[in-house]
Amino acid sequence: MAKILKAEMWDKMQYLFRNFYDRMVHCVQYYDGLIDPDVLKRVIVFTTEKVPVLHSSFKSNVIDPYWEVEDYKVSDILTVRESTDLEADINAFICQSIPVESNVQYKMALFNKDGRSVLCMIVNHMCMDGGDFKYFMKKLAENYNKLLDGERDLDIKTGSRSYDQVYSKLTPEEEEVARGLYKNISQVKDEHYFPLTPSSPSDVTRICRRKVGTKLFADFRKIGKSLGVTVNDLMLAFYVRSLYEIGMFRDDERLTIPCMVDLRRHIVDGGVHTGLTNHTGFMQCSTEKKGETINDTLIEVLRSVRKSKDDPYMGLYSLPLLKLAYTIFPYIISEQAIKIGYLNPLIGMSNIGVMDDRALKMGDANIVDGFMTGAVKYKPYMQLALTSLLGDITMTIAIRGNDEDEKIVERFFDMIIANMNSFVELNRAKLGSSPAEK
Amino acid sequence: MKERFKRYLEQQFRAIRPTLAAAEYREKMLKQLMDRAQELRIKGMDDEDLIYDMCIDELGDFGATLAAFDEQEHKVANAKRNALLGAVCGVGAVLALVVIYLIVSFLVPNSWGLTWLILVGGAFAGVIAFSVVLLVKFGKAKKYIAMRLMPPVIIVLLCVYLFLLLQLVAGVEMAWLTFLVMVMMIAVFDGVMAFITDFKFRWIELPIVIEVFCVMLYVIIGIAAGAAFWHPGWLLCLGGVVAAVAEAIAIIANRNSKKDAKEKVRIKDKYTKEDESYYTSWKD
């Protein structure tokens, strides 16, 4: 008899999100040497065996959905190929989608060219989010290196995938409060949308990306540090201001952007003992106006995010409401109920964070470039994802669109870069100053 | 900067009691000051002393703010819990009413035709209780217009129920006169409320209330006493007009008296009060 796994709350929620995006999370890592495919296969088999949800198919049962563990071969997961056109191969790979009925829920590709490897991976968002995806890639490299060194104590976390792990770091009193946060924070009436063309049959998956540049990133990060501002705050300010510009919103219009929050901050030890899963909430960033300069936009952003940052329960709102809906109703009804109450944000931002170059080293092959990005959004939804690696930031916007949409996104990237430059110019004096006391 | 703000706050907070709430408020104020300092830096201010001064200055009379904080009354935030208790009590009351209705209906022979009054009475009592709660709530919030809508709701429900009891249970003839009394009661209650809440047009409302009261009284007595009362009983309907004229006389007399007193003071000042500057001061 097939082994059954419980479908956790976030698995069901991500399944519901199939209406808004393709549910895939993507990662591409460029190396300056070759990765040994045989060693990689061993690591993949180890990891897949340890995490059964990765080789399970999702059964959308009307009462209570579940995962059914499936047989698989490593070739179902890993593709190894010599490449003649690296970028075309990478794009073709990452732009695919894995059906929930598939026997495996993640796929990897190893493309080799001119003595260098590129490791690509896509995974069903129902299995893990960006936070655990970073962990997964680090563990993959760590286990690969262990095998190369002749060690056999491979390791990957296999704890609970339950959503309520997010309460594990809270005191009993705080947990009681957090479990009563039924407020629906998705119900923010912001009808601003990113100006993409209307949907058409010719739309295809596109993962548009742009690197900021190490010099520019270092400059604005240094200025930010002197002002006591995080990179996330700065990126939000650049993003928001560019949205005002590309959307041609009035300068005094209120704009609300949800920014993804890693809920592992509420989990004991940052979630290293939980299972691979989703632990993502969001905080709202609302700017009342665009502001005259990029510094004014930054102040608007700070005023908004401070409220969230000061909230000890940041990101924990609505979880009890979702849990209640999935508990009291059969799945088919709870999904409809949640659909009525949930407003998917039209525009969002997700800062996946730093990809640790040392942790991602595989044998002698050093990582020289790479990025991670979230799911491919369907129009009119759109999200900017950010990853930083080796002192540079990669911005990605994954959409289903046409050539015109890609041009719009490229123009949007130009605007963000222009706003970064104007921030540096406006605060050039601070490049030489010492960091602000905080 | 942070240390300077800390020193300032520690000094200021010594003026109030060293409670946990005060400590939390102090932390909050430090964050507020630091956030403001950050904003000023982003805006381009690079003189740290000036930033400090501006931040402190923006606190205004912080001593007074702290004193107000210290005197503030803190209540238990139990509104949600009470609401839940109220809802459960409501459900319990409905259930109890249904049970009583069934028991009485089953035990008293041929009572099904009247026992529904128990359910209606319960429903009315619920609405009346809710209206009373709203009346108090609106009154406390000084939302007087909304507050004045509540007594008519209560009076209408009471009168309708009284009518049903008189008509169906007691078999009283002319029980419908209750509805005429109802109009009188609504008018009187609203008039009283207008004066309690200092309604702007209360003096205009007063004769209207008296007129409505008089007309209703005339009709009720006329029906009860018979044809002999209709004439000259109609003179009762002039009650409102009489009241309006009496009120006008009283208001004008009162205003005249106030104006006279004011004029007296002015004349006294003008012709008796002496000041050296009156020898030399010129209007140009």
What does this structure look like?
The complex is a heterodimer of chains A (438) and B (284). Chain A is an alpha+beta fold and 438 residues long. Helix content of chain A is 35%, strand content 22%. In chain A, the strands form 4 sheets. In chain A, strands 5-6-7-2-12 form a 5-stranded mixed beta sheet, sandwiched between helices. The termini of chain A are far apart. The model of chain A has no long low-confidence stretch (mean pLDDT 92). With 284 residues, chain B is mainly alpha-helical. Among the domains of chain B are: 1-84, no CATH class; 200-284, no CATH class. Chain B has helices at 2-13, 20-42, 48-57, 62-71, 79-107, 112-140, 144-148, 150-170, 177-196, 202-225, 230-233, 239-272, 277-280. Chain B is flat and about 90 Å long. Classes of the chains: A alpha+beta (438), B mainly alpha (284).
List keywords for this structure.
heterodimer, A: 438 residues, alpha+beta, five-stranded mixed beta sheet, four-stranded mixed beta sheet, 12 helices, 14 strands, B: 284 residues, mainly alpha
Structural class of the helices, strands and pairings of chain A? alpha+beta
**Gyration radius of chain A, in Å:** 22 Å
User: How would you sum up the global shape of chain A?
Assistant: globular
Q: Biggest protein-protein interface? A: A-B, 14 and 12 residues
- The unreliable regions of chain A are none
Question: How far is the N terminus from the C terminus of chain B?
Answer: 57 Å
Oligomer: heterodimer
Structural class determined from secondary elements of chain B:
mainly alpha
**Residue runs with pLDDT of under 50 for 5 or more positions of chain B:** none
Q: Count the strands of chain A?
A: 14
- Tally of contiguous helical segments of chain A: 12
Q: What's the total number of strands of chain B?
A: 0
Percentage beta strand of chain B:
under 5%
Order of helices and strands of chain A: EHEHEEHEHEEHHEHHEEHHHEEEEH
What would the principal axes of the Cα set say about the shape of chain B? flat
| Cα separation of the termini of chain A | 60 Å
Helix proportion range of chain B = over 70%
Radius of gyration of chain B, whole Å: 33 Å
